[in-house]
Amino acid sequence: MDNIIEVKNLTKKFNGFIAVDNISFSVKKGEIFAFLGPNGAGKTTTIKMLTTLLNPTSGELAIDGFSSIDNRDKVRMTFGIVFQDPSLDDELTAYENMYFHSVLYKVPPAQIKPRIKELLEFVELWERKDELVKKFSGGMKRRLEIARGFLHHPKVLFLDEPTLGLDPQTTNHIWTYIKDLNQKEGITVFFTTHYMAEAEKIADKIAIIDHGKIIITGTLEELKNKTQKDTLEDAFLALTGKKLRDEEASNLELLRNRRKMRHH
Amino acid sequence: MSTIYILWLRQVTRYLRSRSRIVGSLAQPLLFLVALGFGFGPIFQKAGEGNYIDFLVPGVIAMSILFTSMFTGIEIIWDRQFGFLKETLVAPVSRLHIMIGRTLGGATVAMIQGIIIFLLSFIVGFYPHSLPLLPLAFIFMFLISIIFTALGTAIASKLEDMQGFQLIMNFLIMPTFFLSGALFPLKEVPRVLGIIVKLNPLAYGVDSIRGTLVMSSYFGLQTDLIVLIILAGILLSIGSYLFSKIQI
To answer: Which of B47, B6, A88, B84 is nearest to B55 (CA)?
Structure first.
């Protein structure tokens, strides 16, 4: 089978701090790949480099054979992404957000409406398509973003902590949608999460990253065998230690926290 | 083309949807028109400068365009904060087109604001002195809108959050407005002030609107046009360059 994501000797430094340290891995076509690690391990930075939002300091990365550095537009066409934080326009309706995405990704005009309808029905938001997104709950926004991520028939879907802060019902629904589309459309799924049970249940393959380095890659069974543990959670703790991690808040997080404080 | 269109459409849709913003942003220019227009009017007349409303309205139109276009440009910071910027940055379209679409959208919004002020000024007794020059006035307004939306975009591309915003407001937007000749004639100002005004892009904007609406231009419409077109070109280039370099 072909590798759809190929990462070689990838490194990212921020002002001397090494966020991602010479990592290499690959993801096979159609696979569900879990990318795990403690806070600040380098997960989001890796996703940002894969999705062309950040330039790597050194190394190579490619999606579907196209370099994320030299062939950005080709790469951008191949993936869909659901970010850690919402990335919808609150002042537009659900339908308008989907429509905006269709135009940017050059979905043929005749297919735009049926495709949006199909996906919004799939995530059970078609009834509310004309409501402004700012009126949606966190779970609804996440569902809308997942629908949007699938809109242009991507080959790879990136999900950065897609179920963070969602209730078990929504989480369950979201994974059902994703597994469904993974099987139906053969989409490769690359996701990060802090919920080990989730990764255990969903992922075909797991990689664990810590301090910017990948410490292990393999199937669930391989990970459990190598660490001599019964669950992924125990294996994860055995590999990454029990020490707490402090992540420095970015400017944006600081700002958001301040806003929250003001609202309370 | 479709990218430019959809980003333009987004800016305009958002604007038309926020009625409170439209009303709110009209209050200040109206206050300037009424308070300054009628307050300084008699003295201005006595000093032999003619009708102050005629003089002031083009300045206030320019002010309204300046504020609106700078804000729509700087809105990128909000998009960054609320995450929407990422959606546009990972899309398989050229960032130049994204930037142009946004800028045209912002400029359209600023232009609508300017036209609303222009129409409202009829209430305080203003009227355009030459109808044939009116289309030219709108072209000038659009040029000013482009210049300052692009400037806002360029600045916002380098800012991570809104902390720098107050700085921009006090050290860039306000001086640009007050030192543009929007409120006072440039004929007999002290030399240093005159030089500062001549270095201010908005001065040519105010002058061009004044030249086309009430037929009194200080620099000459030709100079205004050349200066504004060159500035629009430069700022669009800088804005696109900085926008294309954004990393998140």
So the answer is: B47
